[in-house]
């Protein structure tokens, strides 16, 4: 199922996307309102042309990592301008439209909250190309008996750290569920990558409504972590 599409970064030094800083987010124009309805400041008339552009000749797709309601995420390999090859996720919307909002948010977050590096966007077809985040989906941790209550707690703590950092960068995730959270279990303590930022919203000044949405979602996850833990199940069986 290997399709060989080679992709080359154009008009953009790919190394810059790997050394991005949080300074990006401060440059975004904020059109926030308190309506809780606000469209993201990430909408712009540029149509994404201001984002790093990549061409397909340096991309090599190697598999499918997930199919969601709105798009397909492929595992790919990107040849950087220095010749290095790096693992990436290439996300293409079912609609065929440009996923400019998610790309711009990733660009502005500049890896805050462990979000993937945005390498760039393509056209023909439209796709966003981001870092492949190593780790285990939190949903797999929830459903696996391999992770005891201590590991689950560590995964939850890492997620809280990432969410606080995400908020610190000015955004609320809005779509936090265990399928959008990747836990890197190779680090001690565990670290977290928040992915799928297409629904994220800029946090308006003096309004914590959006942040509360995320903390509420995290509470649900916390409840599930403890209810499903082998320790709890063992305890229930003893009762
Ligand atoms: N940057 C990434 N690194 C590693 N895996 C990823 C990355 N992005 C996406 N994935 C994988 O692909 C799956 C789907 O990605 P994503 O959640 O971004 O797409 P989606 O279309 O919004 O899916 P859904 O509607 O199910 O949320 C994720 O659950 C994850 O397993
Ligand atoms: Mg998702």
TrEMBL record:
Transmembrane segments: none
Key word Protein transport present: no
Keyword Iron-sulfur tagged: no
Record key words, sorted: Kinase, Transferase
Listed SUPFAM superfamilies: Protein kinase-like (PK-like) (SSF56112)
PROSITE patterns: PROTEIN_KINASE_DOM
Region: Disordered, residue numbers: 1-50
Residue spans of biased composition, Low complexity class: 11-46
A Pfam cross-reference name: PK_Tyr_Ser-Thr
Protein name in the entry: Serine/threonine-protein kinase ppk1-like 1
Lineage: Eukaryota, Metazoa, Ecdysozoa, Arthropoda, Crustacea
Gene for this chain: ppk1-L1
């Amino acid at each position: 199922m290997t399709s060989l599409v080679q992709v080359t970064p154009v008009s953009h030094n790919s190394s810059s996307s790997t050394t991005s800083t949080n300074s990006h987010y401060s440059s975004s124009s904020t059109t926030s309102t308190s309506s809780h309805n606000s469209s993201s400041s990430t909408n712009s008339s540029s149509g994404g042309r201001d984002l790093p552009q990549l061409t397909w000749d340096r991309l090599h797709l190697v598999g499918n990592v997930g199919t969601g309601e709105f798009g397909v995420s492929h595992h790919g390999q990107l040849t950087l301008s220095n010749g290095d090859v790096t693992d990436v996720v290439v996300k293409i919307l079912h609609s065929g439209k440009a996923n400019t909002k998610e790309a711009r948010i990733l660009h502005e977050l500049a890896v805050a909250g462990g979000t993937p590096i945005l390498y760039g966007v393509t056209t023909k077809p439209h796709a966003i190309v981001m870092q492949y985040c190593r780790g285990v989906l939190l949903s797999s941790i929830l459903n696996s008996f391999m992770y005891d209550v201590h590991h689950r707690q560590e995964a939850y703590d890492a997620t809280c750290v990432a969410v606080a950092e995400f908020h610190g960068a000015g955004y609320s995730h809005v779509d936090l569920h265990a399928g959008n959270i990747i836990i890197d279990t190779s680090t001690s303590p565990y670290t977290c990558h928040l992915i799928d930022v297409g629904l994220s919203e800029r946090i308006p000044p003096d309004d914590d409504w959006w942040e509360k949405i995320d903390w509420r979602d995290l509470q649900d996850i916390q409840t599930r972590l403890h209810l499903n833990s082998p320790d709890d199940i063992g305890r229930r069986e003893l009762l």
